[in-house]
TrEMBL record:
Pathway: Amino-acid biosynthesis; L-methionine biosynthesis via salvage pathway; L-methionine from S-methyl-5-thio-alpha-D-ribose 1-phosphate: step 1/6
Organism per entry: Cyanobium gracile UHCC 0139
Record has Amino-acid biosynthesis as a keyword: yes
Reaction catalysis annotation: 5-(methylsulfanyl)-alpha-D-ribose 1-phosphate = 5-(methylsulfanyl)-D-ribulose 1-phosphate
Designated name of the protein: Methylthioribose-1-phosphate isomerase
Root EC class: isomerase
Residues given in the record as substrate binding sites: R53, G54, A55, R90, Q206, N257, K258
Sequence similarity: Belongs to the EIF-2B alpha/beta/delta subunits family. MtnA subfamily.
InterPro entries noted in UniProt: IF-2B-related, IF-M1Pi, IF_2B-like_C, Initiation_fac_2B_a/b/d, M1Pi_N, NagB/RpiA_transferase-like
GO molecular function: S-methyl-5-thioribose-1-phosphate isomerase activity
Keyword Transport: no
UniProt entry keywords in alphabetical sequence: Amino-acid biosynthesis, Isomerase, Methionine biosynthesis
C-alpha cells in the first residue's frame, strides 16, 4: 500500500520480532496511526474491535496472536487457551480458523522452547503467501477486465471501465494488494482506464472510509455512492462489472460477504452485468455446501446502526446518534450470495465457475470435504 509515497503492509513484525505492528483501521481515513500488539489479548481485541479487519488479514493476525501467546507461555494449556480466545473473536470469516489450525499443527509436535519461533515462522509464511495469492488474483482479474473492455461497442473504446465494488477488499483487508481491488490496481498500473463506484457500505462505511482512502492514495479514479445506488447505475449502463471479496466460500460456490452484497448480485443479474468474486484458497470452506443454511452470520452491536462516526468541519472525529431515542437496531454483518448469481470466482489459481466442479478443477478438495 502506498501512503504518501511509502509502501506499507497492513501487518508486520516489529524490530526484535517479538511484537506485531498493524494499522489502526478504526481511525481511517482521517488519521493514519499504527499500533503495536504485544500479547494474545491485544491481538484478539484488535480483531474484535476491527482495528484489523478483512478475512485474510484477520487470519494473519490470529497466526501472529498465537506467536505472542507462545512467547509468554509455550505450554499446551497456553496454546489451547490462545487458540480458543482468537477463534472466538469473529465467527464468519473462515480464514481465521484456517490460519490458527495451521500454526497449531506446526508447533504442537515441538518442544515448548521451540514453539514461539516456529509460530513466528509459520505466521510470516502465511503472510507472504497471502501477498503472493492476492497479486495472482490481481493478474487473473486484470485479464477479465481487459476482455470486458475489448468487447465494448466501438463508441466506448478508450473510455474508463466502470467497476462497482462493495465494502473493502483491498490492501487493508489483506496483507497487501487485496482481493477484489487487486485487479483494479493491476488495471490502473497497466494503463487500462478504470473508474470505481465505491459503495459506502453501511453501517461501518468501509467503502467510504477505507476503499476510498486506498484508491485515493493509489491515484485510482473513484466515486463514493450510497449503498442503494448500484442498481440504478446498472439499469442505466453505467457499470461494466461488479467485483467483491468474500469472507467464506462454500465448496458449491456460495459466497458470504459484507451485508448488502446479495442485493448487488441480484441487481447485476437482472441487468446482465458480470458479478465477480475474488478470493484466495484460504477463504474456501470445503465442509459447507449450503451457504445460506450453514454459514454462521455475525451480528454486531446495534450501535453501529444507530450511530455514525465522522469528522466535523473543525475538530476531532466523533460519533453521533442517528435515530430517535428508544429506537433499536439490528446489525447482521454479512449475507450470502448463492452461486447461481456469481458469474465467476477469481482465485490465485485462475478463474472458475461458481460451482463445486469449478472449484475442484482448481483445487484438490480435502478428504474430509464429503
Amino acid at each position: 500500500m502506498n501512503i504518501d509515497g511509502r509502501p506499507w503492509r497492513t501487518i508486520w513484525l516489529e524490530e526484535g520480532g517479538r511484537s506485531v505492528g498493524v494499522i489502526d483501521q478504526t481511525l481511517l481515513p482521517h488519521r493514519f496511526v499504527t499500533r503495536s500488539l504485544t500479547s494474545v489479548e491485544e491481538a484478539a481485541e484488535a480483531i474484535v474491535t476491527m482495528v484489523v479487519r478483512g478475512a485474510p488479514l484477520i487470519g494473519v493476525t490470529g497466526a501472529y496472536g498465537l506467536m505472542l501467546a507462545l512467547q509468554a507461555d509455550p505450554s499446551d494449556a497456553s496454546l489451547a487457551a490462545a487458540f480458543a480466545r482468537l477463534d472466538a473473536t469473529r465467527p464468519t470469516a473462515i480464514n481465521l480458523r484456517w490460519a490458527l489450525e495451521r500454526v497449531r499443527a506446526a508447533v504442537l509436535p515441538l518442544a515448548p522452547e521451540q514453539r514461539a519461533e516456529a509460530a513466528r515462522a509459520e505466521a510470516a509464511a502465511i503472510a507472504e503467501e497471502d501477498v503472493a495469492m492476492c497479486e495472482a488474483i490481481g493478474d487473473h482479474g486484470l485479464r477479465l477486465f481487459q476482455e470486458i473492455a475489448a468487447r465494448r461497442p466501438e463508441q466506448r473504446r478508450g473510455q474508463p471501465l466502470n467497476v462497482l465494488t462493495h465494502c473493502n477488499a483491498g490492501w487493508l483487508a489483506t496483507v497487501d494488494w487485496g482481493t477484489a481491488l487487486a485487479p483494479i490496481y493491476k488495471a490502473h498500473r497497466s494503463g487500462l482506464p478504470i473508474h470505481v463506484w465505491v459503495d459506502e457500505t453501511r453501517p461501518r462505511n468501509q467503502g467510504a472510509s477505507l476503499t476510498a482512502f486506498e484508491l485515493g492514495r493509489e491515484g485510482v479514479p473513484h466515486t463514493v455512492i450510497v449503498d442503494n445506488a448500484g442498481g440504478h447505475l446498472m439499469q442505466h449502463g453505467q457499470v461494466d462489472a461488479v467485483i467483491v471479496g468474500t469472507d467464506r466460500t462454500t465448496r458449491t460456490g456460495d459466497v458470504c460477504n459484507k451485508i448488502g452484497t446479495y442485493l448487488k448480485a441480484l441487481a447485476a443479474h437482472d441487468n446482465g452485468v458480470p458479478f465477480y468474486v475474488a478470493l484466495p484458497a484460504s477463504t474456501i470452506d470445503w465442509s459447507i455446501g449450503d451457504g445460506v443454511k450453514e454459514i454462521p452470520i455475525e451480528a454486531r452491536s446495534p450501535l453501529e446502526v444507530t450511530r455514525i462516526a465522522g469528522k466535523p468541519a473543525a475538530g476531532e472525529p466523533t460519533s453521533v446518534q442517528l435515530v430517535p431515542d428508544g429506537s433499536d437496531g439490528f446489525n447482521p454483518a454479512f449475507d450470502v450470495t448463492p452461486a447461481r448469481l456469481v458469474t465467476a470466482l477469481i482465485t490465485e489459481r485462475g478463474v472458475a465457475p461458481a460451482s463445486e466442479a469449478g472449484l475442484q478443477a482448481l483445487y484438490a478438495a480435502p478428504a474430509a470435504a464429503g
